[in-house]
Amino acid sequence: MTQDDMKKAAALAALEYVGSGGVIGVGTGSTANHFVDALATIKGRIDGAVASSQATAERLKKCGIPVIDLNAAGGLKLYVDGADEATRHLHLLKGGGGALTREKIVAAASETFVCVADESKLVDVLGRFPLPVEVIPMARSYVAREIVKMGGEPVLRQGFTTDNGNVILDVHNLKILNPVELERMLNQITGTVTNGLFANRPADVLILGTGTGVRTLK
Ligand code: 5RP
Q1: What's the gap in Å between 27 CA and the centre of ligand 1?
Q2: What is the CA radius of gyration of the chain?
Q3: CA-29 nearest atom, ligand 1
Q4: How far apart are CA 19 and CA 26, in angstroms?
Q5: Distance (Å, rounded) from C-alpha 142 to C-alpha 100?
Q6: Is 132's C-beta closer than 6 angstroms to any atom of ligand 1?
Q7: According to the model, what pLDDT value does residue 21 have?
Q8: Domains in the chain, please, with CATH?
Q9: How many Å lie between the centroid of ligand 1 and the Cα of residue 153?
Q10: Which is nearest to 203 in space by CA: 106, 89, 51?
């Protein structure tokens, strides 16, 4: 079974959390794309979806699923998204696709956050994958210097602008032993929009695709 098969299996298993009626939130990335494709098969059951990126909005539209603005949708029952790393405590590191800020907004507005991933994403300690931090462009150097003081090695993501018109610093060499605290500390740096730690609002359910089926952590 390939890694992509495992992503697909996890995404399919998340369909079980889709109720009847209402609007759901959908994340960004290859695993979230599998979820959009699966959602298309039951699209009659929902009123539409809030997308965490332009790319996901396009995919939803192509599948015939109405894309709803979060401000019009109000609170959401469900958000389904992938992750770059996840722990047994359901703390996540996200933003490899650069959609972290909108992802965090939709997750915050949702009652239940179901994270879907292949088993390789499960780690004991977050931080081997570089931590994305979205930054207002004029604050890029200042924020980078502050992150260096905290022990990180920020690298500007070249040629990339977020859907919000900002830049991303990918922070290497952080061993994230306290994700709740680090998420807060990074957000305190003026000029930071948000960072890719989802610890203060972790996932509620983690569905992992494995070589022998799906495994669910709650
Ligand atoms: C995008 C994300 C994705 O969820 C994360 O990068 C995982 O992607 P994939 O499902 O392609 O492995 O946070 O900003």
Answers
A1: 8
A2: 17
A3: 11
A4: 14
A5: 20
A6: no
A7: 86
A8: 3-124+200-217 (3.40.50.1360), 131-195 (3.30.70.260)
A9: 21
A10: 89
**152 C-beta closer than 6 A to ligand 1:** no
- Name the residues annotated as catalytic: 103
130 lines ligand 1 (CB under 6 A): no
Going from the Cα of 84 to the center of ligand 1, the distance in angstroms, rounded, reads 6
Return the residue whose CA atom lies nearest to atom 1 of ligand 1: 97
Q: Whose CA is nearest to atom 5 of ligand 1?
A: 83
Does the C-beta of 83 come closer than 6 Å to ligand 1?
A: yes
Q: Nearest 5°: phi and psi at 56?
A: -70, -35
Question: Block means of pLDDT (10 residues each) for the chain, length 218 residues?
Answer: 96 96 96 98 96 98 98 96 98 98 98 98 97 98 97 98 98 95 98 98 98 96
pLDDT, position 34: 98
Helix (H, G, I), strand (E, B) or coil at 56: helix
pLDDT of residue 202: 98
Identify residue 217 by its one-letter amino acid code. Answer: L
Q: How far is CA 141 from CA 23, 85, 138, 169, 192, in A?
A: 39, 27, 8, 10, 11
Q: What is the largest CA-CA distance in the chain?
A: 51
Residue 120 CA to residue 96 CA, distance in Å, equals 15
**What's the confidence (pLDDT) of residue 79?**
98
CA–centroid distance, residue 30 to ligand 1 (Å):
7
